[in-house]
Amino acid sequence: MGVHDQIDQQPALGGLEDSLGFLLRICQLRVYEAFYERFGEDELRPGEFSVMWVIHLNPGIRQGVLAATLRIKAAQMTKMVRRLEEQDKISREIPDDDRRSVRLTLTAMGESFIADQQAAFFGNESYHNHPLPPAEAAELARLLRKYAGFAEAGA
Amino acid sequence: MGVHDQIDQQPALGGLEDSLGFLLRICQLRVYEAFYERFGEDELRPGEFSVMWVIHLNPGIRQGVLAATLRIKAAQMTKMVRRLEEQDKISREIPDDDRRSVRLTLTAMGESFIADQQAAFFGNESYHNHPLPPAEAAELARLLRKYAGFAEAGA
DNA sequence: TATTGTTATACTCTATAACTATA
DNA sequence: TATAGTTATAGAGTATAACAATA
């Protein structure tokens, strides 16, 4: 036993446990762990479900609009879209009214994939598996939206 | 004007805006942007302040204990510690009672750095600059701690 | 044999800027 | 000239496993 016993067993954090930046990083790590545990074997990467989900809801959405909506940079979106196209989950179309742009749609396989995985992403069987009861999870979501500067519905 | 007007202006999100995984990623992006805006010129990286802060509060802390506390992997912690040592912000010591381990302490320059930047990391002049009033920020922190599985003080 | 930390490697993610084709 | 998307490149973060020193 030495002079460092207390430090080695329970280091002081001095308010770090109240820092939103620190806490958000820890929680993000937890999300990624849970995500890979559930979706890793399906070769699904974080972000890809969200991208496919928004295309599913907005067939023909412009690639740039999708990128801005999900805060994904253009260069990274290109790579993700090409990857999903190679997997035959989405299709790209160059519209005649603006041949610079790209419009995205789910393929039949993509729609099928979303239908299969939807409950695992949302819903009670969600990959999250966190200890928050529904009311607190909803309040956490509300505060995160406000933190991020998202407009509130029904405000 | 075309059939995609609605989609291009306000794509439907279909509940994605309630997903904690999605929201945590967006909020994390915001944190990093704010962090680099404030600390980027000081060559400080996310994680480095937290590491130095915990060493400041727990001088002589073992490197592995520090890594476990802050959820940083051992290999990455080695690199961060070497970098901070090169910058003369921390010092490494091999203790006689266990010569496998490494104990970390802030140098005078490290202590001075923490003293200078403390208010910019915590406090009201924090780099965060989010729109949450104090009570909601505190509630957000509480929910994030619970989400992450942190033990509550005074529970 | 197990543990602490280090090194090497590879892969992903991200940021930036130059580039193309279209407008 | 400006815009949408692509490509190329480099850097930073992360994961993994092999490794050395010590217990």
3D architecture notes:
The structure is a homodimer of 155-residue chains. The first copy, chain A, has 155 residues and is mainly alpha-helical. Helix content of chain A is 54%, strand content 6%. Chain A has a three-stranded antiparallel sheet. The longest helix of chain A has 20 residues. Chain A is elongated, with a radius of gyration of 20 Å. The mean pLDDT of chain A is 90. At the A-B interface, helix 2, helix 3, strand 1, helix 4 and helix 7 of A face helix 2, helix 3, strand 1, helix 4 and helix 7 of B. Chain A binds a DNA duplex (23 and 23 nucleotides) through helix 5.
Q: What is the topology?
A:
Two copies of one chain form a homodimer.
Chain A: H1 5-9, H2 20-39, H3 48-57, E1 61-62, H4 63-69, H5 74-86, E2 90-93, E3 103-106, H6 108-121, H7 134-148
Antiparallel strand pairs in A: 1-3, 2-3
Helix pairs in contact in A: 3-6
Chain A binds a DNA duplex (23 and 23 nucleotides) through residues 45, 62-64, 73-79, 82, 98-102.
